[in-house]
Amino acid sequence: MNDNEAILDFIRYLTNIKGYSENTIESYKNDLEEFSSFLATEKMARDMLHVRNERTAQNYVSYLSKKGLSSSSIHRKISSLSSFYGYLVKEELFKENYFLSLELPKEPKRLPKIIKEDEIKMLFEVCDLNNKLGYRNYCILGCLYGCGLRVSELCSMQIKDIDFIERTIHIHGKGMKDRMVIMYEDLAQSLKHYISTFRLELLYNSRQMDERTVFLNKNGTPLSRVGVRKILEHLVTLCGETYNISPHMLRHSFATALLNNGADMRSVQELLGHESLSTTQVYTHLSFEKIKESYKIAHPRAMRIDKKNVKK
141, 151, 136, 161: which is closest to 239 by C-alpha? Predict the structure, then answer.
């Protein structure tokens, strides 16, 4: 087995067993091919299946650092290689995963970017509910902010996944992990109206009347992730604002809003579809910032000290 065959075998595993998205798989493939090229250029090993010690792996980390890659990019690339060699070890094609315990540059702690509640309110308000695209956009916002969906989950959502009686949506999530999310009442009613009216108008443009994807573009075909991002950017412009926005920021805002208003972390973990609780815990930092603000405003001693520190 050569490098290309090993990579292809691993890609099949990620696709068929792990159920990763095309973008994620492409990222893994690029990371593995880059390491294969590094070995050939530097002549440190005959190929990826002949890496014999941790020193080669550590040298690759140094090589990536010298290229000027950010610490987060290096961590991601090494994670890809660790997953690849972990798979080879599991399949008994390799003895040891040398990428498990490397010294990596420290990643700066970055809190998820969120959108403020008043800004989110404005995004909903600028949607024209008398217009089929405006009404669709209103429902898209509701699903991203009200249900915490990933953009890929939003784009692949089918009509059959929605239970209007129970007000839930069956989400086919990352890594082939299904979960149920909850719709608030207005979102359920809005989605029901959109599907029975404006969606049919959009669908007629493509004449593909058997299409069951919920969110369609102006041509009546399934909305893409790029399309969703452009919609959000357009809504920000309509608000008269210039801040950057992404679908994932609404997912972050969803999680933060729940924790700020008393939801327990396990429930938020389930709603987000996080495999590990530690992934959800990052949002507690954002919640704690709000707690500190409340403390400064409400506690007599904190208020007194802050007033003394105010420059006259």
Answer: 141
Per the annotation, the verdict on 248 as an active-site residue is yes
DSSP 237-304: HHTT------HHHHHHHHHHHHHHTT--HHHHHHHHT-SSHHHHHHHHHHHHHHHHHHHHHH-HHHHH
- pLDDT tens-place string over residues 194-216: 999 999 999 999 988 899 999 99
251 catalytically annotated: yes
Catalytic residue among 77, 132, 251, 252: 251
Selected catalytic residue, list 77, 150, 199, 252: 150
Residue appearing with tokens 């990826």 = 48
Render pLDDT for 38-49 as a digit per residue (tens, 0 to 9).
998 988 888 898
Dihedral class, residue 43 (left if φ above 0, else alpha if ψ from -120 to 50, else beta)? left
Catalytic residue among 76, 170, 174, 193: 174
Query: Judging by beta carbons within 10 Å of its beta carbon (0-12, 13-18, 19+), is residue 54 exposed, middle or buried?
Result: middle
Residue 174 among the catalytic residues: yes
Query: Angle, to 10 degrees, between the axis of helix 247-260 and the axis of helix 265-272?
Result: 160
Do 122 and 115 contact (CB within 8 A), yes or no?
no
Active-site annotation holder among 28, 87, 194, 283: 283
